[in-house]
Write a structure and sequence with these properties.
Blueprint lengths: L14 E6 L2 E4 L5 H20 L18 H25 L2 H5 L2 H18 L1 H4 L23 H10 L23 H15 L16 H10 L1 H4 L25 H9 L15 H12 L6
Antiparallel strand pairs: 1-2
The structure holds heme C (2 copies).
């Protein structure tokens, strides 16, 4: 085909020199901006290709000059979070409760951590929000056996109660049913406790509860007041619960009182110092203290 580049008379443009049956093709090049963008994308693609993972092999892939991988990016992000958390936990471990409470931002972080640790470790026994259930004290209720200050709660969590740990809180209510009191005396003292301390004095009381519980009162003063207090107010040195209360570890019935006097339950709370680090224990103590019963 003959090629003859000439000027088109109508448009004033050059032709490409191609001609088919008298039709001539105008030379209309790509706009410059389009061409440069196109070239730039090629350069960009080559750059990406070299810098980032690209060519697959049979057994792997070319990792790219930067060595980037999404997994590493995630790992780095996680490491960053851990480092940040560690700094906070180090501060919680180092500062006193009063200092933590004086720093609203740190206190908030501690409470978030404490709530999390509580949900993971304590909730199965103590219930959501420390609501408690029979045999497991309601931590939100403020009816503390061993004490409700931050330090006392921290101590309880760290070493436990009858946990077997050398520093655990320990005590035992005597087994009065093993010969110390007769069944009739146990019933008398239980009636006294039930009527006087559990608040069941008046209507609603079963007919067999004697009006006169003087005998039971005497038995209580002789056998029980040493731990539970003369007014049933409880004794924290031995973790003896407050009996003059609406919140009872083993239920509100007369049968529960008789059972406890006869063969006492002795609740066990695990020690946590081997499972939780000191900062987490502090955070949990702050959380428990914040539930409503803190002293
Ligand atoms: C040596 C101290 C001690 C003596 C004495 C003692 N208790 Fe207790 N008592 C305890 C302790 C400790 C508990 C808590 C048991 C637990 O935590 O599992 C308890 C728990 C109880 C409970 C259960 C309270 C609840 O919240 O459910 C009752 C009721 C009770 N005692 C009544 C008596 C009576 C009545 C006597 C006297 C006959 C008596 N106790 C004598 C230490 C004592
Ligand atoms: C295996 C069940 C169990 C787990 C898990 C458990 N506790 Fe306890 N906890 C108990 C029992 C039972 C008692 C009551 C012990 C007694 O009768 O004296 C108790 C008592 C306590 C007390 C003392 C209450 C008082 O009246 O003085 C505190 C505080 C406490 N737990 C906090 C915690 C925290 C915080 C955790 C989680 C780190 C936790 N517990 C995990 C069973 C458990």
């Amino acid at each position: 085909m003959p090629t003859k580049i000439e000027k088109d008379a109508i448009t004033g443009r050059e032709t490409t020199g191609h001609e088919w049956d008298g039709l001539k093709e105008l030379n209309t090049p790509l706009p410059k901006w389009w061409l440069y963008v196109f070239l730039a994308t090629i350069v960009f693609a080559i750059g990406q290709f070299v810098l980032y993972p690209s060519v697959p092999y049979f057994t792997g892939y070319f990792p790219g000059v930067l060595g980037y991988s999404q997994r590493r990016a995630v790992d780095q992000a996680v490491e960053q979070v851990i480092a940040q958390r560690k700094a906070e936990m180090d501060r919680i471990a180092a500062l006193s409760f009063a200092q933590i409470q004086a720093d609203p931002k740190l206190l908030e972080l501690a409470l978030v951590d404490g709530r999390q640790a509580f949900a993971n470790n304590c909730q199965p026994c103590h219930g959501a929000g420390g609501g408690g259930r029979p045999g497991y004290p309601a931590l939100a209720a403020g009816a503390w056996m061993w004490g409700g200050t931050l330090q006392e709660i921290q101590q309880t969590i760290t070493y436990g109660i009858r946990s077997g740990d050398a520093d655990a809180r320990n005590s035992a209510m005597p087994e009065f049913g093993a010969g110390m009191l007769t069944p009739a005396q146990i019933q008398q003292v239980a009636d006294y406790v039930w009527a006087s301390f559990y608040g069941n004095k008046d209507e609603g009381a079963p007919k067999d509860v004697p009006k006169d519980v003087a005998e039971g009162a005497k038995l209580f003063a002789d056998n029980c007041a040493v731990c539970h207090g003369a007014q049933g107010q409880g004794g924290r040195e031995v973790g003896a619960p407050r009996l003059a209360s609406q919140v009872h570890l083993y239920g509100n019935s007369r049968e529960a009182i008789v059972a406890q006097i006869t063969h006492p339950h002795m609740g066990v709370m695990p020690a946590w110092h081997a499972r939780l680090d000191p900062a987490t224990i502090k955070a949990v103590a702050l959380y428990v203290h914040s539930l409503g019963g803190g002293e």
